[in-house]
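Teaching assistant's notes for section 4

Start the section by putting this record on the projector. Ask students to predict, before seeing the second block, whether DoxX family protein will look compact or extended. Collect guesses on the board.
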Amino acid sequence: MPTSARSAEATGLPDAFVLLFARVAIAPLFLYSGIGKVMAFAVTAGRLPGGADGFGMLLAAGAVAVELGCGTALLLGLFARQAALVLFLFTIAATLMFHNFWAAPEAQVVVQTINFLKNLGLLGALALIASFGPGAYAVQAAIKPGSKGAPELT
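Reveal the predicted structure now:
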């Protein structure tokens, strides 16, 4: 079967571990960032369009909901495809807004370029999770009707 036609149900043991690793490796970044936004909510809102007293508050609340909600969903493997897609779109927006190295002051170009390229890597991993699903080691696989659960170690 061609690789692009495989789904979470058709993946074997190595693929299940790779998808688990991808989810577990990516989720903390979004969870940490979401918690940081909660802890400094007014500062976060102030950095967004509309500022701390306006539309920035709504944008900051949305960012917190996306990062904490989708980060948790990825970690657990519950609605992982949808969470990865939302985080994919969120990461594109955040990257263009905050890591636009082409418009950064000279002292910030290298740092912003690194962050921009890091986010491209995140986009690749999120695209794989959105495409292949959470894998066999996920809450979703355990509760899916007719699921056989995680593959056996043989």
